[in-house]
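Listing S7. Sequence submitted for prediction.
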Amino acid sequence: MHITMISAECAPVAKVGGLGDFVEGLAHDMSARGHRVEIILPKYDCLRLDRIWDMHKVQDLWVPLFGDWVHCDVEQGHADGLTCYFIEPHAPQAFFQRGRIYGEADDAERFGFFCRAALEFLLKSGRNPDIIHCHDWQTGLVPVLLYEIYQELGLTHPRVCYTLHNLGHQGRSGAQVLHLAGLDPARAMTPDRLQDPGNPADVNLMKGGIVYANYVTTVSPRYAWEVQHTEQGGGLQETLKLHAHKFGGILNGIDYEVWNPQTDPLIAETYCDTTLQRKARNKAALRRRLMLEEAFRPVVAVVSRLDSQKGPALIQHAAHFCLANEAQFVLLGEAQDPLVNEGFQTLKHRLNDNPHCHLELGHDEELAHQFFAGADIILLPSRYEPCGLTQMIGMRYGVVPVVHRVGGLADTVVDANHSELEFSQRTGYVFNDFTPEGLESALQRAIGLWFRYPEYFRQLRLNGMQRDHSWKHPGGRYQDVYESIRV
């Protein structure tokens, strides 16, 4: 099959979170299965150009914008073996010259234009892929534009798979984004198309993707249920129920080439399940890098974006709880919200001199690998979590996860004490209540096992390392989806 992925992110060249890892991982898996895979991205001014090989211009492109035309350059390059096309518009709005990927007041217009430009590129370059796979609200207009405009212009072959990574962000905006993209607001702004269920004056770009796509997925089976039956649907519950015949949850995988403690060049000492004792050298190296005291204590780590979804108040509570219970606490994360950032800056200042605590406020991919290699316990107290890759990466590196029972966290972590499965199938600790007391109940059990029953703790590590969280199974599921919607 010829598969074109249209996305706002793809690791390692444009990554904010799990979406970037998803696109890279699934693209690698589909390529390994023999499919022709191409990825279309905006050419941000913050691209990791050092990770792109053989970048060169392949096409001049003229894209409609508010009835006018904008000149764009399309460049091709290779990132970690993947063929990528980067669209650079020369518009007065400087859509992708903002120094960051998201967070602008005109994000809806920026990505609405990108959707139009991506389809214009497919049309003008003569591409007619079997599958267009697009992601989250930023590309929600792709299936809308395909079936409202581009099918009549000649893109008759592609079918669309649309993946919802996070319904906490749906791309609500005014009707201006429809004018920009060349769509008729009178036709689009109806309850059965793009009209937002909560505010009829708003366009909901994610809803448009759901309505027009041939198949819709989300990133774990439990999250698929949650977004239809709980407030996690963010107002799109009825839309998803209406389209349930073409909606399903497929658990994400992680890229075993990137996340492999046996071959990882970024860690102090490589290891695997049969040489787990070598992990101790990574713990020592992490302590040296973070200037922590060498002590008989477990290292509890947080590697996360720091936003309201991730439970920032519980993360801060966990720092104090770990220190009060003879554990070391380390954090690697970045907050875009000024109030959340201020809270963690205050915590960092307060705990700065504690020899058992270190907060690294920023994004550092190399250090993330070292956190996984050196930590004993990884904490994910998310309010909601569509899938979560961190707990799977942690298990791959022999780290025991402590998680809130939501979404993909519930699908991937089996509680060490409260499960009907054999102990060999149990992998971590789970708490039900999104409260400090709920978190403490699970974290205390994890820390307690580390101190009192080290052999059982070691077995939990091994259980996690031996689980298969690669793209092998989810890749097969996506291949089946693609086949089911092909012409």
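Caption to Listing S7: primary sequence and predicted structure tokens for the chain studied. DSSP finds 17 helices and 17 strands in the chain. The chain has a mean pLDDT of 96.
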